[in-house]
Structure formats: C-alpha cells, structure tokens
Amino acid sequence: MTARILPLIFMTACLIPATRDQYVSDITFDVCTEKVQCGRVDKDDEDAEYTSFDDCTADVEALFRNVWPSDTCDADSIDRDAYEDCHHEALTAACSDGFFDGLSAIEACNANAVCSD
C-alpha cells in the first residue's frame, strides 16, 4: 500500500507552487554549481570570478532578489515556463564569455519576463 501512496504524494508535492525564496535559492545554487564546474570559483586562482562557493551564492542571490523584488514578484506571479527559460539562460551564461549569452540571460531573467501581473 505504501508503494502506491508515495508516487501520489510526490506528484502532489510537485504541483505545489514554489515560493519566491525557493526559486531564488534554486537558481542561485545551480548557477554557482555551474561556475564551480567551469573553474569560475577557485580560491587558488586569482583570475577566478569568485574565491568561494559562499561568495558566489551571496552575489548571485542578491542579484536575483534585486531582479525579482518581493513586492512585485512573489511565488504566485512567477511564471514557471518563463522561470525555466531564465534558468536555462542563466546556466548557459554562467560559464560563457559570450556577450550574447549574457544578454540572453538578462532578457530571459528580468522581472518583466519572469513575473506576471
């Protein structure tokens, strides 16, 4: 019986909308993890963008909290599909030196794109 209930609980949990803080936390963790993997976070490399994962997360989290202000962009107004587009573009830009990758992330992740009225 438990085997039948667990998938139902999991599927139901996936339908519950995330909070703004969860969206910010998830994208922050994923972007900084990507930056670690491509060498942009390295305490021994003076050319690295960040010297620690904590420095990266503090910076990226502050960025997304600023881009998605709580008074206009709460969990109910975050469009899940737009968030997924933003997430994809942010991960692409995390390790790219390309101007257009950064521009695509800015465009996909701004409040007008992610937060609906």
N→C terminal distance:
43 Å
SSE pattern? HHHHHH
Note the main sheet. none
Helix and strand composition category = mainly alpha
Estimated helix fraction:
55-70%
Radius of gyration: 16 Å
Count of DSSP E strands?
A: 0
Overall shape: it is globular
**What integer is the average pLDDT?**
86
Uncertain runs with pLDDT below 50, 5 residues or more? Answer: 5-13
Structural description of this entry:
With 117 residues, this protein is an all-alpha fold. It has one domain. The protein has six helices and no strands. It has helices spanning 2-15, 20-37, 53-67, 80-94, 99-109, 111-114. The longest helix is centred in the first third of the chain and has 18 residues, at 20-37. The radius of gyration is 16 Å and the shape is globular.
Q: Helices, strands, pairings?
A:
Blueprint: H1 2-15, H2 20-37, H3 53-67, H4 80-94, H5 99-109, H6 111-114
Helix pairs in contact: 2-3, 2-4, 4-5
Summary tags:
single chain; 117 residues; mainly alpha
Short note summarizing the structure:
The chain is mostly helical. It contains 6 helices and no strands.
